[in-house]
Specification:
The protein is mainly α. The protein has helices spanning 30-44, 51-71, 102-115, 122-138, 146-161, 165-184, 190-212, 220-238, 252-256, 261-271, 274-280, 291-305, 310-327, 334-362, 366-369, 372-412, 417-436, 440-456, 460-482; strands at residues 74-82, 87-95. The model is unreliable at 4-53 and 65-96 (pLDDT under 50). A hairpin with a 4-residue loop joins strand 1 and strand 2 (87-95). Strands 1-2 form a two-stranded antiparallel ribbon. It is globular and about 85 Å long. The termini are far apart. Helix 4 (122-138) runs antiparallel to helix 5, helix 7 (190-212) packs antiparallel against helix 8 and helix 8 (220-238) crosses helix 12 (291-305). It has 19 helices and two strands. It folds into two domains: 30-238, Serine Threonine Protein Phosphatase 5, Tetratricopeptide repeat; 252-482. The protein is 69% helix and 4% strand. Residues 349-388 form a coiled coil.
């Protein structure tokens, strides 16, 4: 059992320890080795001392080694995987002491050596990490202690290396449930809340990513709960940051054009409160500790919901884009986020079209035709759906065009596959939009451009999608010419 019901909480001062690569003990005895080497060098050059003096020097060296072990600097490394396709987040924390006891450090050193490229024995490393967890429990370490949860993450990582998928997911879900339970029950000290929110978001995002490979979305609601909790924390501590002066919605295209400090400053002065203006104008902006992980979680959730709940996806994606634009940081690629926003509007358009089809079918039913009040009501609904469909398709078109205008030139001289993919897919999507609008001239133009880009970037799947739409277009044009 990885976790107990202990309620003791501590300050979150360190993360998963990882040994530096090398052939020596890798928990971080660099200081003691350097000191020892220096003393040994001096000792070799003091041969003229008498034997008694040499013995005293050796005792002094041993004493200094013991002292250095207590005061050495340790590199702490946390490696987790987040994002839609997975990326590494490595956080470096330097501590002026070894965070683990000798009994725990011993199996950790062996584990990190076993997983290094010196051995590549992940099964052996797994056993040592499990042994380290057992030692932690014997010492009475709190399950909420970041040292303990850090080792748990290493256990999950070893299961991943060993391709033991079910066990990896099991470890992550138990860890996330444990952390979230502590958070919602108020069992985490104030100074440790944000770091625990960060770790919980990272772990649950990873769970949803792993399961989604097999279209298993059972933990998607759990991710939503984590996101809501993190948002409530932001509203509690930083609620002033994103509130407009008049509580109105921000214009998405105004946000998309926040490309330099001058435009951001103008936007902040125009739309945000004085308190927010003061915050964003600081030389060093300290955003919520877990903000980047929340952005990644919202991006994943929005992507999974994009066809079923496009309105929700639009809200999440617009929030992410606003955060990234104002903070001038990109924990995820901004171009992909904007493309997802355009796609969400396109799905919103399709949902409105489905509603239009249902309303039209209903209006043909005999019992409806005989009820004038019902007909009047349905006509009003139909008009609203048609307006919403038109507006959604227009927004999708304009956002895709903004992507092409912003990124096409950069993609021509860049080897960034994300950038190239965004441009090629945006051109293809514009072709699809013009196909829906029966603007076949623009449809042909953008599909040709998309195909050229996709071939240049060796995107075979995109070329196939384009060719399928071109085939449909040619068939449609042939039918119209023959009619």
């Amino acid at each position: 059992m990885l976790f107990s019901t202990a309620k003791r909480s501590i300050s979150l001062k360190c993360l998963t320890p990882k040994l530096l690569r090398g052939v020596s003990l890798q928990i971080g005895f660099t200081t003691s080795r350097l000191f020892s080497s220096s003393i040994q060098y001096q000792t070799e050059n003091l041969n003229h001392f008498q034997n008694q003096q040499q013995l005293e020097d050796e005792k002094f060296i041993q004493f200094q080694k013991a002292q250095a072990r207590k005061k050495k600097w340790t590199t702490i490394i946390l490696s987790t995987v987040t994002g839609i396709v997975g990326s590494s987040i490595i956080l470096y924390l330097w501590q002026p002491w070894n965070p683990f006891s000798t009994e725990v450090s011993r199996p950790l050193r062996k584990a990190l050596w076993a997983e290094s490229d010196k051995e590549d024995d992940y099964m052996k490393a797994l056993k040592y990490y499990q042994e380290a967890l057992k030692k932690c429990k014997e010492e009475g370490m709190d399950d909420l202690d970041p040292r303990y949860t850090g080792i748990v993450l290493k256990v999950a990582q070893m299961y991943e290396k060993l391709e033991m998928f079910d066990k990896e997911v099991d470890v992550y879900t138990k860890l996330s449930d444990f952390l979230f339970g502590k958070l919602i029950n108020g069992e985490v000290e104030e100074e440790a809340i944000d770091r625990n929110i960060q770790r919980d978001l990272q772990v649950m995002t990873r769970v949803v990513e792993l399961l989604n490979r097999d279209n298993d979305q059972r933990y998607v609601p759990e991710l939503w709960d984590r996101m809501r909790f993190a948002e409530s924390r932001i509203n509690e501590k930083w609620g002033f940051l994103m509130k407009s002066k008049d509580e109105s919605q921000f214009d998405v295209f105004e946000v998309l054009n926040l490309n330099d400090w001058s435009s951001r400053k103008t936007f902040i002065q125009k739309h945000l409160t004085d308190k927010a203006h003061e915050f964003w104008n600081q030389w060093f902006i300290e955003l919520p500790y877990f903000m980047e992980d929340l952005i990644a979680a919202k991006d994943l959730y929005a992507t999974l919901m994009i066809s079923r709940r496009p309105e929700l996806s639009i809200s999440l994606l617009q929030s992410n884009i606003l955060w990234m634009k104002l903070a001038d940081r990109q924990p995820i690629f901004l171009g992909t986020e904007i493309q997802n926003l355009a796609t969400a509007y396109y799905y919103k358009n399709q949902n409105h079209q489905l509603n239009i089809n249902r309303l039209n079918n209903r209006m043909t039913q005999k019992e409806i035709l005989e009820n004038e009040d019902e007909i009047t009501s349905l006509k009003a609904l139909l008009k609203s759906e048609e307006q919403n469909r038109y507006e959604s398709l227009r927004m999708s078109e304009l956002i895709y065009l903004s992507i092409v205008n912003s990124f096409e030139e950069k993609a021509q001289t860049s080897s960034d596959m994300k950038l190239q993919s965004v441009v090629a897919m945006s051109l293809y999507s514009l072709g699809a939009i013009y196909y829906d609008k029966k603007d076949y001239s623009n449809c042909t133009k953008f599909l040709a451009s998309a195909r050229e880009k996709a071939l240049d970037y060796a995107m075979v799947q995109v070329v196939d999608k384009i060719d399928n739409l071109v085939f449909s277009l040619e068939k449609k044009l042939s039918e119209e010419n023959n009619s």
